[in-house]
Fold this sequence. Notes:
Elements (H helix, E strand, L loop, with lengths): L1 H19 L6 E5 L1 H10 L1 E6 L30 H16 L2 E4 L2 E4 L4 E6 L5 H7 L8 E5 L12 E6 L4 H21 L1 H6 L1 H19 L12 E7 L10 E5 L2 E9 L5 E6 L5 H14 L6 E4 L7
Amino acid sequence: xxxxxxxxxxxxxxxxxxxxxxxxxxxxxxxxxxxxxxxxxxxxxxxxxxxxxxxxxxxxxxxxxxxxxxxxxxxxxxxxxxxxxxxxxxxxxxxxxxxxxxxxxxxxxxxxxxxxxxxxxxxxxxxxxxxxxxxxxxxxxxxxxxxxxxxxxxxxxxxxxxxxxxxxxxxxxxxxxxxxxxxxxxxxxxxxxxxxxxxxxxxxxxxxxxxxxxxxxxxxxxxxxxxxxxxxxxxxxxxxxxxxxxxxxxxxxxxxxxxxxxxxxxxxxxxxxxxxxxxxxxxxxxxxxxxxxxxxxxxxxxxx
Length: 304
């Protein structure tokens, strides 16, 4: 069965890649003044653990799409045992970051992401980084994906976030039908051999978690997010998570170096003090011997 699982996993990863990697334009990383100073000084961008992102539903969004009744999939009759199994997984993850099945605790993988946007001048993202009338936000524009991560142990994936619920359901349906077929083919072994069953569950959850990285509630569509994600971090000896504290919360993150040659612009949020802000960032860049980025100010009117 393991060979069959490997084949299906590879096919489903490719299906996801085909869906989300059509975009090849510029991307923008919105951040605070402290954030841009750290990024340009250390030549690093921080990838945050997905369990601590600002959208509280993000960790379990995909599980809210799971079918509640097996007759939703009329093309292929779902095995009742399989349907009950995936419902237990979904219901558990909707309540917490893990599920408990057959005396086993199944944790979602530790996934770290860096968020970008395809939108150069986005009011919603500016508002997130300018909490009060006197605060300022910045974004860094990149000509191409600025990371070159290659490792047999460290897993890296990037692409557009999928907001279209019909696409999300279609992709999830493909996963469920593929695993339902495997269950049918190996039903007796899965139901009687705990190790086989565990391998089956782990494979299913790993694929679901991979897709979950790029599924987001349609309410966030205006962000036009492009996401870079790293997973399988625990097994990679060359990189270890660090911790920062925000509002009293300990938040794990990874420091990942980026290609400075990809940086083509730095944007400044809506402000009535544009000239001084632009002079300040230009002076800072000179102190770091960074001369390439174009500096620009948002064209969105400043409101009080």
